[in-house]
TrEMBL record:
One of its GO terms (cellular component) is cytoplasm. Pfam families: HisG. Belongs to the ATP phosphoribosyltransferase family. Short subfamily. Lacks the C-terminal regulatory region which is replaced by HisZ. The gene is hisG. Residues 52-198 form the ATP phosphoribosyltransferase catalytic domain. Pathway: Amino-acid biosynthesis; L-histidine biosynthesis; L-histidine from 5-phospho-alpha-D-ribose 1-diphosphate: step 1/9. CDD domains: PBP2_HisGs. InterPro entries: ATP_PRibTrfase_cat, ATP_PRibTrfase_CS, ATP_PRibTrfase_HisG, ATP_PRibTrfase_HisG_short. This is ATP phosphoribosyltransferase. SUPFAM superfamilies: Periplasmic binding protein-like II. Catalyzes the condensation of ATP and 5-phosphoribose 1-diphosphate to form N'-(5'-phosphoribosyl)-ATP (PR-ATP). Has a crucial role in the pathway because the rate of histidine biosynthesis seems to be controlled primarily by regulation of HisG enzymatic activity.
Amino acid sequence: MKPTIALTKGRLEKQFLAFLQSKGYDIAPLTDKGRKLQIETDDFFAVFAKGVDVATYVEHGIADLGIVGEDILLEFEPDVYDLLPLPFGKCRLAIAGEPEGPRSFGKQRIATKFPNITTKYFRERGKSVDIVKLEGSVELAPLLGLADNIVDIVETGNTLKENGLVVKEEMMSISARCIANRNSLKLKKSVLAPLIDSFRIEEAAI
């Protein structure tokens, strides 16, 4: 029985496929999939979904393993086993805003896609803020007066710079993670072990 891996569509998908290729896996079926969301390879079945849905599929046992950003695990806290970090998808979660904007984080309005992470971060530091949950480009919020600052994922910082924003405080570093369904780890151990072991080779270098 082949294992099923849920992959986060987009940037992480491309980085994971390059990672697989470096391990000697044949990724041709995954790169030539067109618009298909389910693909079978010689080694596993792959399903493609948004990050939060990847975690859901793994939690409910639809997928045995998942490749997802660490931010998803921190924000939604799915009931999955966080196996190991992967050597890609590295970025930062940061507080950003206009250079002349507020720097003392008191009772401010913070726009973010990550209300749970943000609330916890400020609460642990004894700060009280109002959270505005956004789904799209949070960089607009301080520019249009919706929020004083934002909390968002920063990779290169180019998007912030192009919109006249700067990083004011780095909250944490995050990376891609390999997650697993808890029951699958027990019931399909012999099937999953070779795949997981192939991912672990790079762990010490992270």
